[in-house]
Amino acid sequence: MAQFAVIGLGKFGFSVAETLIKKGADVIALDNDEKKIEEIRNIVTNATCLDSTDEEALRTANVHNVDAVVLCIGANKEVSILTAAILRKIGIGRIIAKVDSELHARILKIMGVQRTIFPEQYVGREIANILVSQHIFTYVEISKDHSLVEISVPSFFVGNSLKELDVRNKYKIGIIAIKRAKQTVDETGENIVEEEANVIPSGEDILLEDDKILIIGKKNDVDKLIKQSEKEK
Questions:
Q1: Residue 152 and residue 117 share a domain
Q2: How does pLDDT run across 65-104, given as a tens digit for each residue?
Q3: What is the bridge-based pairing of β-strands 115-117 and 95-98?
């Protein structure tokens, strides 16, 4: 079972932790506010009140054993940066951090934080959906019941045309774009890889192993396809 740590339990962090639990993950929730810890204690796997800039406290909370850490301390840049530094020191490989400025994002990326999130662009539920699957690149809730998701092509789709797959009838979803990497040469002669998008593909388009697809549908149907895809990997 996937395990994550969420540090900082404001509205954003609480939403991430709550959604991860609903997705079946184990969640360690951490904050320096005892009141917030009590509010989430009965929801998550483990909740601890601590100072995230205390290396020993983080080690004691077992964050070094999780699959990823979501750092939800955006307003206090100093604490966010110090916490990120400690997380890197103790060997956390995957860190996603909430930031409130481009400067904050640049500093954290220099320190090795893989992804930074502006709350204005994402909500906690969407981040949680990306975390629980390595095959999801974008997850957007476009309504109460529908999602728009960018995923790796499921192995059982590879080599088939959209017409053969008949995803609308078989999976109750629609494929609205196919993204494919293309090698090219820039103006300096360097080899680069660009991603081309085939928007509204035809029934004759065939899916390849390294493609990504943008799918849309009811949340339950989208999640069902994602879970089926992960079992086949």
A1: no
A2: 899 999 999 778 889 999 999 999 999 989 999 998 888 8
A3: parallel
